[in-house]
Amino acid sequence: MSSERERTYHHGDLRRVILDAALDVIATNGPGALSLRDLARRAGVSHAAPAHHFKDRAGLLTAVAAEGYALFADALTAAPDLRERGVAYVRFAATHPAHFQVMFQPDLHRTDDPDLLAARARATEALRAGVADLPPAGRGEDDRLAGLAAWSLAHGFATLLLSGNLTDAVEGRDPEAVFRSLTGLIFTPEGRAGD
């Protein structure tokens, strides 16, 4: 077998290589720049190889979203309280910008994929558990609205941070510390975790 053929067909964990290349493309140029042909070229494999693992572009983006939600759920679950889950949310967005971009754009992936649904359910449960842990006075009369407020704050802050819109507001401070301060503007002192 020629070395070209070995390079093409004996790649090791090709699925991971393609996912990593896709994450690089998305982080640099956004999901719109993603092409299975380009990923195959980057991985040094035939243009059909990515399709073998992901079928098509939507399949690849579904795998990115499912992996993102699984990592996200792990990060949220590891946080001890709602405030720190918000910090974990912001940290996840900053350290996994490609995953974050794809996860929250359902038009990019297959929203009925079982792996994606399971990972997203774990992440949702971790967020809900953080709200449920607040004392009643800290979450108001409606747990769902308290959850929406917490999610809006974390997601909005993370999105603004990733898009560079918080540079002046953060003024060189640690974004995680700024986010912790913001939580005090939404939740009452009795309900703030960690106080």
How would you sum up this structure, described in words?
This protein has helices at residues 3-9, 14-29, 36-43, 49-54, 57-78, 82-95, 97-103, 114-132, 136-139, 143-162, 167-170, 175-186. It is elongated and about 60 Å long. It has 12 helices and no strands. The model is unreliable at 1-10 and 190-195 (pLDDT under 50). The chain is an all-alpha fold and 195 residues long. Helix content is 71%, strand content 0%. The relative contact order is 0.12. The longest helix has 22 residues, at 57-78.
Q: Ends: how far apart?
A: 65 Å
Q: Quick one: biggest sheet?
A: none
Would you count the extended β strands for me?
0
Q: Residue-averaged pLDDT, rounded? A: 87
Strand content is under 5%
**Rg measurement, Å:** 20 Å
Overall spatial form: elongated
pLDDT under 50 segments (min length 5)?
1-10, 190-195
Structural class: mainly alpha
Number of helices: 12
SSE series: HHHHHHHHHHHH
Helix content: over 70%
Brief overview:
The chain is mainly alpha-helical and 195 residues long. It contains twelve helices and no strands.
Please write out the topology.
Layout: H1 3-9, H2 14-29, H3 36-43, H4 49-54, H5 57-78, H6 82-95, H7 97-103, H8 114-132, H9 136-139, H10 143-162, H11 167-170, H12 175-186
Search tags:
mainly alpha; 195 residues; disordered C terminus; disordered N terminus
